[in-house]
Design goal:
This protein has seven helices and no strands. The chain is an all-alpha fold.
Length: 210
């Protein structure tokens, strides 16, 4: 992991976007507080822990790549990923599950698999703007695929609502990176989604999400 991880600037939480995310998070926490937490199945717990780290991975990589290239999508989307992290944390807090990334700096993870993926994508993304955009595309299609799997393993409405909102956000992120892919004229082969799924999302209209 990078020795300079702690020096990276965190996502800008100010402005209209930051205020909107704060209002949405407050509404989410208020809704959760009004309902009694239930006992999570092992799969539900594992999925929440994984998604918390996966959203952190996305945020941390985008912070590094924005620092390297200064491309606006990495700055904007890193802030959105912070919102995704906060939403998953609200679910973890509600169900009494310890935060797996508490006390960890930028670029640090509990999961060896996520740590390895983070390190590889940061290294690849440092080469060119094109490799950075490809890293973003891979992260977003992975996020979409994993959110769909996690949603299929729970019937809890509050968890499903958060997963659906996060997937809408990830689809928008994928669209943003796809626009840059076309602008830079770089090739990309989907890894975690089928080619049909990938291009169906990438070429469709932006969605409203929190």
């Amino acid at each position: 992991m990078s020795s300079s991880a702690g020096s990276i600037r965190r996502p800008n939480s100010g402005g209209a976007r930051g205020a909107h995310r704060e209002r949405h998070l407050a509404a989410l926490r208020a809704g959760l507080a009004a309902s009694a937490p239930g006992s999570l199945a092992q799969g539900e717990r594992e999925d929440l822990l994984k998604m918390r780290e996966e959203e952190k991975m996305a945020r941390d990589i985008y912070l590094r790549l924005f620092e390297r290239w200064g491309l606006r999508p990495f700055e904007n989307i890193s802030g959105s990923e912070q919102g995704h992290m906060d939403a998953i944390l609200a679910l973890l807090d509600h169900h009494g599950v310890p935060d797996p990334v508490q006390g960890l700096g930028v670029g640090q993870f509990r999961s060896p698999e996520i740590q390895a993926l983070h390190d590889r994508l940061v290294q690849e993304g440092m080469h060119t703007q094109g490799t950075a955009i490809r890293a973003g595309l891979l992260i977003e299609e992975l996020d979409i695929a994993d959110l769909r799997v996690a949603a299929g393993r729970t019937r809890r409405l509050e968890i499903l609502a958060v997963y659906a909102d996060l997937e809408r956000g990830s689809r928008n992120h994928l669209r943003a990176f796809h626009r840059w892919m076309r602008r830079l004229g770089i090739p990309y082969a989907p890894t975690h989604l089928t080619e049909r799924e990938f291009y169906s999302i990438a070429t469709s209209a932006q969605e409203r999400c929190h």
